[in-house]
Each structure stands twice: as structure tokens, then as C-alpha cells.
Amino acid sequence: MLEIEDKRAQSSAGADRADELFQQHRQEIYRKTDQLFARLMLFQWVAAIVMAFVISPRTWAGQSSNIHFHVWAAIFLGGAISIFPIWMTRIWPGTALTRHIVAVAQMLMSVLLIDLTGGRIETHFHVFGSLVILSFYRDWRVLISATIVVYLDHFLRGIYWPYSVYGVLAASPWRSIEHAGWVIFEDVFLVISCLRSVREMCFIAHRTAALEASEQNFRQIFEEAPIGMAVVGLDDRYMQVNARLCDMVGYSEQELTTRTTSEITHGDDLEESKQLTRGLLNGTARYCVEKRYVRKDSEVIWATRTACVIRDESGNPRHYLVMVEDITQRKHIAAALEQAKDEAERANRAKDKFLAALSHELRTPLTPVLMCAAALEQEPAIEPELRQQLGMMRRNVELEARLIDDLLDLTKVSHGKLQLLVSGPVDVHSLLIHTEQIVRSDARSKPLRLDLALTADEYHVAGDAARLNQVFWNLLKNAIKFTPSGGKIAVRTINPAPGKLVLTVNDNGIGIDRQILPFIFRAFEQGDTRGLQPSSGLGLGLSISKAIVELHGGIISAESAGPGLGAVFTIELSTVSPFPSAQLLAVQPEQSQNKLYRLLLVEDNEPTLAVLTSLLRRQGHEVLTATTVKSALILASDHTFDFVISDLGLPDGNGIDLMLQLSNDYGLRGIALSGYGMAEDLAKTEQAGFLAHLVKPINFEQLHRVLEHFAPAA
Amino acid sequence: MVIAALARRQKRTAQLLKVRFYSAAKWNAACCLNQAAPRTNPLQTPRKNLLATALLGIAWTVSVALGLRILFNYETTPGQIGAVPPAWPSASKIGRSNDRPTLVMLAHPRCPCTRASISELAKIMARAQGRMDAYVLFFKPRQSGAAWEDSALRGSAAAIPGVKVLSDVDGVEARRFGAETSGHTLLFDRDGGLLFSGGITQSRGHAGENAGERAIVSMVNNQPSARASTFVFGCSLGNRSQLGDKARCLK
After folding, report:
1. Which residue of A115, A611, A705, B225 sits 20 to 30 Å from the alpha carbon of A64, by its own alpha carbon?
2. Residue A660 and residue A614 share a domain
3. Do A200 and A65 lie in a common domain?
């Protein structure tokens, strides 16, 4: 409604303006025609006097003569007829009264001239000519006044002096109508002409009003634009500027229009600006550039200058249209953001460094414990109860290591550097069974019922077995953690379609709030942990699992009907054809063939060195140890080794330099042991020539497999 | 009715173009009061201008009306007519035709009003088609030189076919024919009887169809004519001393 009212108001305003323009135009015509008649009246007066002097200068009586009456009539009556309308055109220009007096006077002048010329028929054309000139007013009413005068002249003279017009002593009144009829005949066409002229004037007024409105609109847009706008001449001088640009550069409009753009452009940007402007003349449609202006107060501001060239109909450049947007604040903000980003990146790097160091420091003490427990657990002579306790120790150490790994993995995920070690088709069912065996004791201790229903016929996927195992372990550990005693956990696999494997972990635990559900795959997000021990996780498992599943081209999702109603985690993976030989490499250690190697073990951590040496020697390997780079080099120079197993952080150097030297000097191959497991750490060891990079705490079986894998040919 | 139709037409135009024309009332008011400019407030118009306009308007109307009345009176006031003889004056030295009518015009060679009479005589001669003799006698003072007779008017008369131009020294012939005003025209039949006496212009110095012309043409063509005399408009043929105040065109 408001819009309609607005449009009506605009339409009314447009009509008012058109009316105003029409009135102005008409008034101008009235005034100019008044001036025309003022001059014409004067001319006619003079002409009448001259005419009287020429035609009838004197009147005679025999030999004597006097000035003719016509001369006096031309002077005085002509003056009387002319002076008043001339005066009116000066005092009341453009008024209707003036127009009508002029019309009457013009017709009276016709009467006088006809008399002065002795009623010549040619002089009667003055009447018709005068009507045409009167129509210059484009006011048909004026013609009516003139016609009335003609009619009255004939009518009255027909009554009082019929002989003077009709040559008879008594004339019929119809004679005057007949005479006036010819005048009216002309009037009809002149009136039509006047009306047409008025219509055209109205049309012009409407067009002009519309153009004015359009121009006003564009002018307003130009003036009130929120960005600086200017019309710049080809001589680089400002022709027209808006208020915003003036505010921007601190000059008044008058000051700016006496300057060139170069005068307020920063010196460093001047050449580029000129080059871009030349480009416009050479055919570039427009350009947009960030440049600096120097304000009147010498302050430098940044602005985006967009310019194009305006051409005439022939295509010749007329001027430039320039739009200038102040981006000084944006520039400052961008600089601040850049600085903040640099600081954040520095902080992030520091965090990563700290995490790596922390991981290293946390892993190092775990290595001897884990290796010791693993070695003792395999001792056939120990009691079953002790073996069970050793297993518990090993698992807890492994859990501790897993938590540390999660921290590192999270860093990798956040940097997009998490990588898969794809060895071949992975048997998902075997991985699930293995994972179930790992967590079974936890489930029983709660107690919980843990059921596996692995019904899928296609259950091999292409991927990293260790990483998938990590995912399954996370899901099962989560289910156990968040399912109260007596609860039930079901793990199922199905093939909803050929080539598709869907794995679900369903529990009837505490469930997940719908509001939290969308965020549970974010790092450090956990569901409702009330009632759980504070140390029940870091909230990284699902985030890492999601990244791993997605790296496998799969989808992981979670569903829950709400708190207390359990949860279902679903993983969808694409299956591949099974590859029978290598699939269990990751999870089931091959039977060692007990190849014996000469090993140089370099480790500065004494407990790790001792345990690892013991375990390797128990395997039958010949092991020489060093705790420093120097001692390692001495041993390498005196003995022959198949492999060097080296820590990276050593008291007098680092394992990378050591490896480079040993590789160069003796062609030794090496395996890196380190508490640093970041991607860049792995890259460094690879570049140094290490065959593998094992992150502490080291699983001895893992080390054994690596040795077997890289065994020299027999 | 025509004006009403025009007003309706204008109203339609205004409606079509959505432009307001002045109503009759506004227009009349504007005529009389405040149309210096359409947007001018009439209250701001100087009072002295209004008063001066009113006074000048009245003076203009009166002076023009009076002037025209005087002019018309002058135009339509005939000149003097003397004692016109009922038959061809025997003392006249002009040779009258015995087989057809004879027209005699007495004229002043310098009278501007007689120009119209000569013009009308040319028309009469054309319409008479040679069935009439015609003389134009121009007044000539005895003492005047050749320059007196060398006038455009005499030349115009001489150029009319069938017209004989003669000089009337001291207006002797004029007096014989009873003519006192230039342009006085007389028509005599073949027997010398007066058929017509008067002027052949409708007013002073005005050419054009007139009663004298119609009467003469009718008589020459042996047709009945309602008139045998008309007014004469022109300068006096006699001197002031002879005719007093009525001696010139202006009576």
C-alpha cells in the first residue's frame, strides 16, 4: 500500500512539474509574443505615418493646400492605438489582459491602415496577417477578441456609416456577419493550430519533466552515493565530484574541480594510475585498482578506484567516470588480521611443538614398560595369573600410548596430514573380532553383554588396517564407556548393496542429546559424561575416527533417540575383493623365522636401551649399544652391522645426522625410534634414509616385523 | 456555441495530457488582475500599476473611439455640390458626343482622394465597353506651370482607354457643370440631358463597389437605375477664398 501511495505521490509530483514546465513555456511564449507585438505596433505606427505622408500628404482647395487629415490621423490615432498596448507589454508582460489589448489594438491598426490606404483590398490582408501573428500567442481566445473587433467595426459602421463599408446608405446586418465570416473562417484553422501547439507544448512539458526527473534521479544517485564518484576530463582534471569524494580527500568541491587526479594521488601509485588511464583510452573497458590518495591534510588513505571511459556517439572518449571507495579501514583490519593470523600460526606451531615434545616425553618412559610387559607375557614359564596381570599392564600402557597417539593424530587431522598406510584388502570382520578381544575384558568387568553379528558376505575394504582398527576400538570403547552395567552392545555388519559394507555399533547406554548429536564428531566434544570418571577420555576418538573413515571414502554417522535411549554409530565403507595372503599382517604377527641380525642400537634412555637390548638378544640378534652419536660412530667403524636402530634425540647430536653419516660411510640401513611422531618428523627421518619410523612406546612385535620386512636378501 | 465546443475540446486535451488549463473564471480573473506571471501573487502587484493601467485603459478606449469616430466622419462626409445644370451646358468647350452618352469628371490633379475616383472610372470604362465618351477635366490655375499638370493622378486618368484628359483652366468648366468637389462625375445622354451627377466612390478616397459606379454602368447599358445622384468625396476644386471653410477634403 505504501508503495502504491509512493508511486501515486511521485506521479502527482511529475504531473505538477509537467504543469509547471508547461506554464513556464507558455508564459515565455506570451512574453516573447508581447515583445514582438510591441515592436510591431511601433513599426506599424511609423509605417502609418510614412504611408499617410506618401499617399495623402496634403489636401487641396484649388491652389492652396494643407496637411492632409490622414497624416494627423496616422500620427495621433495611430499613436493612441499603439502606445497603450506597447505600455501594457512592458508593465504587464505575459498577461491575458495584455494579449487581448494587443489583439484589439492590432485590429484597430488594421482599420486605420485600411482607411489610410483608401480601402485598398490589399490592405485588408493586414487583418488576416494580424490574426496569424496573434496566433503566435497560441491562445485561441485572443483570436476571438480580434474577431469581435472586426465584427464590431463592420457592424457599427454598417449601422452608422454604411456607405463607408458597403457603398450603400442602408445595409443589412447580415453584411457584417458575412464580412466577419471570412475572418472566422481563418480563425477556425488558427484555433486548431493553437490547440495543436498547446498539445505539443504539454507533450514537451511531460517529456521534459520526465527527463528532469530522470536527471534528478541520476544526479541524486551521484550526489548521495555512499562511495566517491567523479567525472574526470581527458586532461585528468576533475569536472564533477560528489560529496563523499570531497569528504574522503578533504577538499571542497571547488578546490577539487581545480585539481587533477594526479595531484592527489600518492607518488608511488602515480605511474600505475597513468598507465591504467592510458589503457582506458586504448580500449580497456574498465579497471579497478587499489591505490593511495593524499588528503588535503597530508594523510594518506587507501581506496579502490574503479574507472571507465565515457564515449560519445562516434566512439570518441569524452571523459572518465571514476568511483572511489575508501578502504583504509579495511586495509587496517586486513593488516591486523594478517598479524593475528601470523600470531595464531606461531602459537599453533608452538602448540604442535609442545605436543610433540610432550608426546615424546610421555612415550619415552612407556617404552621399557611396554616392551618388558610384552616380553614377560610371552614367557612360557610364568604363572597364568601373572600373565594376566602382565597383559593388563601391557593394555594400560597401550591405552596410555593410544591417548598420546590421539593427540598427535588430532594435530595431523587438523593439518590434513593424516595419512593411511594402505597395504591391501583389509578383513573388517577379523579386525572387529580382534578389537572385541581387546575390549572384552572391559565389557566383562562392568559387566556388559557384547554381541557380534557379522553377517556381511563382503567384508574386505581397501585401507589401513591399523587405522581401521583404531576406529573400531574407539567405537567399542565408547560404547562400553557410555553403557551402564547390565547393558548390551551389538556389533553388526551387513551388505545393504553389493560393494557396500555397513557396520553398526548399537548400545542401549546413556544416549546422546539431539542438540549435541551434530557436534559429537568435533574434537574435544563429548556427550553427557555425568556420572563418568573425569578421566574417561579426551573427546578426540570420534573426531579422529571420522577423519579416518572419510580418508577411506566412507561415512560415519551417529544416531540416538535421546538421553537414556542408547546410540547407534554407523560406518559405511566400500568393499573390495579379498586378498587372502596379506590381510592379517597388521593384526596378526607373522610367525617369526628368527633371522638373526647384527644390530647397532643407539638410545640415550637407559631403561629403554636395557629392555630393548635384552629383548633383541633374547631373539638371538647380535646387539651392540651406544648412547651417543660419537660412541655409535666408533662402533660402526669397528664392526659390521645389518641395521642401526637409533633414537633421534641424542645427547651429542641427533639420529638423523647419525643416520646420514652411517649411510654415507658404511651403507648402513636404519630404523628410527622416537617419541616424536609428527608428520614432519616422519618426513625428516625418511629423507635421512631411515627405513622406518617407530613411535615410542615401541611394540616389540612391531619392531620385529619391520626387521623381518627389511631383511637383507640371503 | 463555437467557443463552448472549443472549451470542451481543450478540456479533453487537458484530461488526455493531465495538464490543467485555466478555467474561465480563473482566466477572467487573470485577464483583469494578476496574470503578470501564473505563479505571481496578485497581492504583490504594485497598486499604482493597477491604477495606471485602469486609467490608461479608459483613456485609450475613449481616445481611440473618438479618433475613429472623427476619422469615419471625415471619410463619410461628402463635398460640396454646386448648381448642376439639367442639360449639357451650352457654354462648355468640350465636345459632346451626339450618338452616345458622355461622361465628364471634374478633378483636382493633386487631390489624393480622387485617386479612388480615377480607379473607379477605369472600372466604369471597362464595363461600358466603348459605348460612352469620357472626359476628365483637371483643374489648372492659369498661372501654374507645366509641373502642376504633371501629376500621377493625371497620368492614371490618361492611361484609361477611352478617356480624354483635359485641363480646366481656373475651373471654368467645373463651374459650368456645377462641380465644386474633385471627383464629381456627370453623365449626359446623347441629347445632352443629365443622367447622373455625383461621386463614384463609396466614401472619401475609398475605392470599391459603389452606388455611383453601378448607376452609370446601368445607364450606359440602357438599364434602369435607382439612383441619379450620389455624394461626392474629394478635395475642393475652388480656392479657400472662393469656398470658405469648405474648401478642402476636410469639410
Report:
1. A115
2. yes
3. yes
User: Looking at residue A548, which CATH number applies to its domain?
Assistant: 3.30.565.10
Reported as a pLDDT band with limits 50, 70 and 90, residue A447 is: confident
For helices A96-116 and A140-160, the axis angle rounded to 10 degrees is 40
Q: Which residue among A101, A140, A203 sits closest to B17, beta carbon to beta carbon?
A: A203
Scanning every residue of chain A, which has its alpha carbon at the shortest distance from the alpha carbon of B244? A61
A337 and A275 within one domain: no
Phi, psi of A451 (to 5 degrees): -110, 140
Q: Do the chains contact at B248 and A61, CB–CB below 8 Å?
A: yes
The proportion of chain A whose per-residue pLDDT surpasses 90, expressed as a percent, equals: 37
Same domain, A166 and A22: yes
- Pair A274, A196 in one domain: no
pLDDT tens across A154-166, in order?
Answer: 888 777 776 666 6
**pLDDT band with cut points at 50, 70 and 90 for residue A434:** confident
Nearest to A55 among B36, B112, B242 (CB): B112
Q: Give the one of B17, B49, B208 whose C-beta lies nearest to A206's C-beta.
A: B17
pLDDT at A336: 93
Query: Which has the higher per-residue pLDDT, A421 or A538?
Result: A421
Ranges of each domain in chain B: 1-45, 102-246
Fold of B102-246: Glutaredoxin (3.40.30)
ipTM: 0.77
**Do B200 and B216 contact (CB within 8 A), yes or no?**
yes
Residue partners of A486: CB distance under 8 A and separation at least 6: A447, A448
Chain A touched by B35 (CB under 8 Å): yes
Q: Look up residue A535 and give its three cell numbers.
A: 578421566
A525 has pLDDT over 50: yes
Compute φ and ψ for A151, nearest 5 degrees: -65, -45
Residues of B in contact with A94 (CB under 8 A): 35-37
Among residues A277, A297, A326, the one where a domain terminates is: A326
**Exposure string over A5-33, b if 16+ CB within 10 A, otherwise e:** eeeeeeeeebbebbbebbbebbbebbbeb
Instruction: Supply the CATH number for residue A704's domain.
Output: 3.40.50.2300
Residues A31 and A178 in one domain: yes
Q: Which three cell numbers stand for residue A569?
A: 554409530
How many structural domains compose chain A?
A: 5
Q: Give the DSSP H or E segment for A488.
A: strand A488-494
Q: Which three cell numbers stand for residue A487?
A: 547393558
Average pLDDT of the segment spanning B19-23: 41
Residue with cell 471619410: B75
> Residue A664: helix, strand or coil by DSSP?
helix
Domain-embedded: residue A213 = no
* pLDDT higher than 60, residue A579: no
The CA-based dihedral angle spanning residues A277, A281, A282, A284, taken in that order and rounded to the nearest 10 degrees: 70
Is B203–A163 a contact, with Cβ atoms under 8 angstroms apart? yes
Residue A435 lies in a domain: yes
Smallest CA–CA separation between A2 and chain B, in Å? 23
* pLDDT the model gives residue A284: 85
* Domain assignment of residue A2, yes or no: no
Residue A105 shares a structural domain with residue A243: no
Instruction: Measure the CA angle with vertex A493, ends A488 and A498; round to 5°.
Output: 160
Q: What residue numbers bound the domain in which A278 lies?
A: 226-326
